[in-house]
Amino acid sequence: xxxxxxxxxxxxxxxxxxxxxxxxxxxxxxxxxxxxxxxxxxxxxxxxxxxxxxxxxxxxxxxxxxxxxxxxxxxxxxxxxxxxxxxxxxxxxxxxxxxxxxxxxxxxxxxxxxxxxxxxxxxxxxxxxxxxxxxxxxxxxxxxxxxxxxxxxxxxxxxxxxxxxxxxxxxxxxxxxxxxxxxxxxxxxxxxxxxxxxxxxxxxxxxxxxxxxxxxxxxxxxxx
Length: 224
Prior knowledge:
- By secondary structure, the chain is an all-alpha fold.
- The chain has helices at 3-12, 26-30, 42-63, 66-96, 111-118, 120-131, 145-171, 177-181, 184-213, 219-223.
């Protein structure tokens, strides 16, 4: 490598700097000012909701606030299934072909960072939901809870679809390559499947809770 090329590389990346910056690759994504910013990415949306959830839980621990504890539990109803869905989709698609979820001009994330983004949040939220939460934030439990959570899951899924289509109309690209490979109806099918999967994952968490902690018996049933 010539001295001029070495000097140019040093300008872009200090020897102790992990990734090249400035560059059109990962650095470009981090610093991008495209429409929707980082919130085009489901991973970032999930991490944002998870952060609010964990922050509420931490403040509830520090202050013994039942209000903050209840807020954490409601946020977890959304955050836990979303993070589980993100982990399932990301690692599943990456196992098939990394190019489905990582644009070709971007480097792979360092493995530890990848785990922090796409695995640990779902594991920690699952532990919180099963070991550190009541069976349901409301008491008594809404008898229509399964239907309500299904509608909520589908609403979240299609809201994200509308959002990325809006971003695509401004930017001319999708945040994840798989969206560009699918036709409109295929994308609709993907989001239907994703919404149903998120609902099933939430139901799985509640089943896991019951398996570990048992059922809650109401006072009315005790009297009978």
